Amino acid sequence: MKDHDKTAFRLSSILIKLNEGEHPSIDELAEEYNVHKRTIQRDINERFSYLPIQKENSRISLDPAYLGKLSSEELRSFAAISGVKSLFPSLGNIFLRRIFDDTVRSAYLVKGHHYENISGKEETFKRIEEAIISHKKMTFWYKSTQRTVEPYRLINQKGIWYLAAVEDKLKSFSVTKMFEPLITGETFAPNPAITEAIEQSDTQWIGTETKEAVFQIDSEAATYFRRRNLIPDQKIEKELEDGGVIVSGRFTDDTQALNIVGYWLPHIKILSPKTLDNEFCNRLKNYITDDISCRGSNL
Fold first, then answer.
1. 3-state DSSP assignment of residue 197
2. Chain centroid offset of residue 215 CA
3. Helix, strand or coil for residue 84?
4. pLDDT tens digits, one per residue of 96-109
5. Structure pTM?
6. How far is Cα 200 from Cα 277, in angstroms, rounded to an integer?
7. Which fold has domain 108-199?
């Protein structure tokens, strides 16, 4: 387990304990998570500084007014946020405490623990959040074009922030590429079907037309694909007798799919579309030819 994953696990576990009304001591937590007492003290004093934590007789507890505010899954996401504060543009104590508010939290969707540098975008996030919560249209400049959209969610996908919004159809916009965001006076009624599509999407390219591809994964790698989705919109189509699996996924372009195939060689085979398999074979042949040519020139 990577360090940031261990931290997120520890923080989420502690948050769950506090949320359920437990009163653990520093020594007990340090022993349970096999870390030094100073690490637990740092968790409480720095990472959880936004929380109204009470301390009495070397034990800690959460202010009763905050008990039961979040579900276990929400607490895990909240802990991940606490462990990597740079994920958000301005993670002061007030900002984090506001995430306990159901209305504010509904504007955000975090997928992944890595993050981009978004310093200087605090005002942009604030305006987007306000527009989402109040269901108001907003305008901004994006790729030299002024856009007018219906904003739905701020999404962190693999560390990059996107705005999922409707502009004729559902689209995603990189927040760091948005300029001069303004909230208009015009309101809109959120479409539940669009909200569900955003929640279910495994890729940041929401609203972009995708193509399906089907792969055969051998038994050595199949476990990883069963454990979690390793390709966008992954679906296990069939379990094979030899322990392998047939999986499908959806991609915005061939390069996205071919990069995944290259990473999982020799444990993956493209079943369809045939054009994708031909493209990969051609790329592989060209790579081998160029590599042999390069090695020959160095002899």
1. helix
2. 24
3. coil
4. 445 455 555 566 55
5. 0.45
6. 28
7. SH3 type barrels. (2.30.30)
